[in-house]
Design brief:
Chain lengths: 182, 210
């Protein structure tokens, strides 16, 4: 048994032969040359020109970036220089528009007033009569107040339900509102 | 009472050393990534001999091995910005070396001349070599040359996959799990390939065995 173990220890195995290959090593001179060559190759890699298609792509992308930059700058200038001028023009046009609104409103108001003169006469006459009659007949102050509030609410409803421009004539043409104004 | 950390250190000292090496390498890699190109030389100096050894044993040609080792480090340098540290630098650079060598050997249509490295004198004084000398009744110098030629020749007869596994395990001394990570295969595949490769080598080197 012990002889068998001793013999097996003496046996040369594949692993033993392969481990001998660990001793196949280059000398120091080899590593000196290796380092020198590696540094040269790495430097060449660092400064090496790219292939043509990469150079073209880089040029194009560079020009694209430049053009995008110029476009951005132009847009910024437009916002900073042209826009205030445009806003100035816009303000005059707005004022003109406001003037035109004023001019446009004036005849409307006049027309409305002229219309109101006719209609409001009747309305004023009717309401005043009713109001007076109500006050006189019932001596109830709350009745007159409630009536006035209803009229005001009606006018307000008319004001909210329409645009500001059109609400004025409608407001003006409302008999109740006219009554309140007067 | 021993803490879990001290227990881990006692049970897995190799793993701990590996982790610290990995951390050290990762610190150097981060230096290179941040623009300190000179720090890359530390990694080259640390791993050049191991990488060269693998490539040399795969090609059996010292000039090719030198070129391919340089190419490996250049490729690693070019790709180091993309290295995220998921594996150790050691595993990563080994993988680059093996892939580069395999691509080279597949492209090489015919077998080139073989040029060997010198064998250290300490081999001739080893116990194994003494036994081989006694068994073959040959002069030491002649036997060394003969054995070197036979070993390289036997390795070249193996397929690339089997050659890689047997070199990484038997010559470089890597664990099965490390080889599996480098070659992107399972541990079972590594063991299987290793077993088959050894069987093949036993047939080629039977004159020196036993």
């Amino acid at each position: 048994m012990s002889n068998h173990t001793h013999d097996s220890q003496k046996e040369v195995k594949v692993e033993d032969l392969l481990r001998m290959k660990r001793s196949e090593r280059p000398d120091e001179a080899f590593w000196g040359q290796f380092d020198q060559e590696l540094h040269q190759r790495m430097l060449q890699t660092l400064v090496k020109k790219d292939p043509v298609h990469l150079q073209i792509w880089r040029t194009l992308s560079g020009r694209f970036t430049q053009s995008v930059g110029v476009a951005c700058a132009a847009a910024f200038l437009a916002l900073m220089v042209v826009r205030p001028a445009f806003i100035g023009t816009g303000s005059t046009s707005v004022s003109v528009a406001q003037d035109s609104v004023v001019f446009a409103e004036a005849p409307l108001v006049e027309v409305a007033m002229s219309e109101m003169d006719v209609s409001s006469l009747e309305a004023t006459r009717d309401y005043s009569l009713e109001g007076i009659s109500a006050e006189i007949e019932s001596n109830d102050a709350s009745f007159t107040r409630d009536f006035g509030m209803e009229g005001f609410q009606l006018a307000m409803d008319a004001d909210y339900s329409s645009d500001a421009a059109s609400s004025r004539p409608s407001f003006g043409s409302t008999g109740v509102a006219t009554t309140l104004v007067y | 009472m021993a803490t879990s950390e001290s227990v881990t250190k006692t049970i897995f000292p190799a793993q701990e050393a590996e982790v610290s090496q990995r951390d050290l390498d990762w610190a150097v890699v981060q230096k290179v990534q941040s623009g300190n190109v000179g720090a890359y030389d530390q990694l080259v100096q640390k791993y050049r001999e191991q990488i060269f050894s693998v490539v040399y044993n795969m090609t059996s040609n010292r000039e090719d091995a030198s070129d391919l080792t340089q190419e490996t480090f250049i490729k690693a340098f070019q790709a180091i910005a993309r290295f995220k540290g998921k594996s150790s630098f050691f595993t990563w650079v080994y993988r680059i070396a093996i892939n580069t060598t395999m691509t080279f050997l597949k492209k090489r249509s015919r077998r080139r001349f073989i040029s060997y490295e010198n064998i250290d004198e300490e081999v001739s004084n080893s116990e194994i070599f003494e036994r081989l000398t006694a068994k073959n009744q040959t002069e030491k110098g002649a036997l060394i040359n003969e054995l070197q030629e036979k070993l390289n020749d036997a390795l070249q007869k193996l397929s690339l996959k089997h050659r890689t596994v047997v070199i990484l395990h038997e010559i470089e001394g890597l664990e099965h799990a490390e080889i599996a990570e480098i070659t992107k295969t399972s541990v079972g595949t590594v063991r299987s390939r290793l077993h088959y490769a050894k069987q093949q080598l036993q047939g080629y080197l039977k004159d020196y065995l036993g």
